[in-house]
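Project outcomes to date are best conveyed with an example. Our students and postdoctoral researchers have been running inverse folding experiments weekly, and each run begins with a structure described purely in tokens. The record below, which covers 360 residues, was selected by the lab manager from last quarter's runs and is presented without edits.
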């Protein structure tokens, strides 16, 4: 049986549509990451699933049962907010017990659940402290603990790690990965951090403009972006998109001519490609600074040294911006004229409507 199922969920605030036909289904115990720009409706969708917001159209089912008309407490869903409001006057233990007491769970059962969650999250020593006596990361764990003790069938985490510093974030990320091994529930997490999504999620859902743009395993989305939005949104730095036209050639694969005349031989099937209005998509690792003076001439506009590799932001002869890669010990400097070798085998092609075509 599926875990969560969303069917054609629509939502508008007044005359402004926010979600326009969202459909999605989760496997049991699946971990899904939601990615998308600010305002794309991620929190709204989570709040609809949790029952904190109504939907205008569509259905929400959990394990086969319709839940969109149930009050939040009866849905089997627990949500952790970005602003993890803990009750400041209650101890950690009382914070975790609060919802269960309201649901009339027996006291010994509450104690047992708290003990177990505290062990999983390693907050046993903190149970009698007040939230004000905890670090940000510890408070975050208490907020997650408060969700765990409800024993939900689905966890909704809205940017749970965004208030943490880099080191703590990394540790909590590992904790989340371990947590998902131990809880028998599906998890949806909203994040702005792609590395987080890539590390934790079985599948990621990329949202933009009220709709799901793509659903897939992180590496599939990275390797086969459905459209130009996903292509630019997933991966850092963003993929270069450059206007291109089909060059003559009789092979099965498309050869493209860039604006400066450079020909790129792709592994994208020529059949089925629109005749005009194409763009080629190149990730930095597909564009190398050539030491031998062959390839497309370019002017270097910025050099970003990352240690193990160097990113070279350059402009081709026609002004087209392009991001290339060089080795860590690169000698390229700002203002240099370089040559770029484009590795066309992994290039993407996008049609006039933005739809992606990929190497076979
Ligand atoms: N209660 C509300 N009344 C009116 N408009 C709202 C309300 N809540 C959200 N919106 C609007 O709905 C859209 C989606 O908001 P939402 O909070 O779901 O975005 P998000 O994807 O979570 O963004 P972020 O990444 O910034 O958290 C935004 O344009 C927002 O302004
Ligand atoms: Mg949000």
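After processing, the design step wrote out the following sequence:
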């Amino acid at each position: 049986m599926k875990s969560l199922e969303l069917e054609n969920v629509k939502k508008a605030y007044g005359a402004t549509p926010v979600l326009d036909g969202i459909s999605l289904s989760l496997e049991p115990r699946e971990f899904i990451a939601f990615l998308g720009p600010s305002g794309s409706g991620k929190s709204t969708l989570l709040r609809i699933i949790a029952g904190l917001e109504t939907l205008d159209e569509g259905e929400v089912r959990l394990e086969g049962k319709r839940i969109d008309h149930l009050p939040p407490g009866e849905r089997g869903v627990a949500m952790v907010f970005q602003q993890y409001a803990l009750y400041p006057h209650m101890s950690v233990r009382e914070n975790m017990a609060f919802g269960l007491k309201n649901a009339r769970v027996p006291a010994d059962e509450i104690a047992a659940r708290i003990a177990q969650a505290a062990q999983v999250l390693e907050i046993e020593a903190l149970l009698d402290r007040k939230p004000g006596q905890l670090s940000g990361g510890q408070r975050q764990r208490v907020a997650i603990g408060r969700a765990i003790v409800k024993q939900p069938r689905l966890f909704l985490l809205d940017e749970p790690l965004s208030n943490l510093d880099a080191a703590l974030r990394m540790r909590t990320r590992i904790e989340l990965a371990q947590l998902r091994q131990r809880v028998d529930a599906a998890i949806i997490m909203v994040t702005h951090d792609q590395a987080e999504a890539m590390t934790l999620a079985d599948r990621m859902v990329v949202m933009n403009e009220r709709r799901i743009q793509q659903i897939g395993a992180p590496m599939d989305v990275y390797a086969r972006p459905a459209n130009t939005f996903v292509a630019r949104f997933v991966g850092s730095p963003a993929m270069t998109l450059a206007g291109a036209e089909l060059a003559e050639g009789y092979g099965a694969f498309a050869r493209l001519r860039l604006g400066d005349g450079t020909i790129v031989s792709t592994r994208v099937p020529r059949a089925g490609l629109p005749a005009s209005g194409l763009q080629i998509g190149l990730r930095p690792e597909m564009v190398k600074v050539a030491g031998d003076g062959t390839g497309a001439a370019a002017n270097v506009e910025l050099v970003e040294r990352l240690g193990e590799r160097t990113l070279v932001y350059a402009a081709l002869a026609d002004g087209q911006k392009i991001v290339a890669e060089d080795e860590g010990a690169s000698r390229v400097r700002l203002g240099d004229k370089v040559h770029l070798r484009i590795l066309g085998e992994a290039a993407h092609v996008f049609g006039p409507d933005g739809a992606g075509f990929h190497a076979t």
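The chain has a mean pLDDT of 93. The pocket of adenosine-5'-triphosphate (ligand 1) is lined by residues 13, 18, 36, 38-44 (CB under 6 Å). The training component of this project remains on track.
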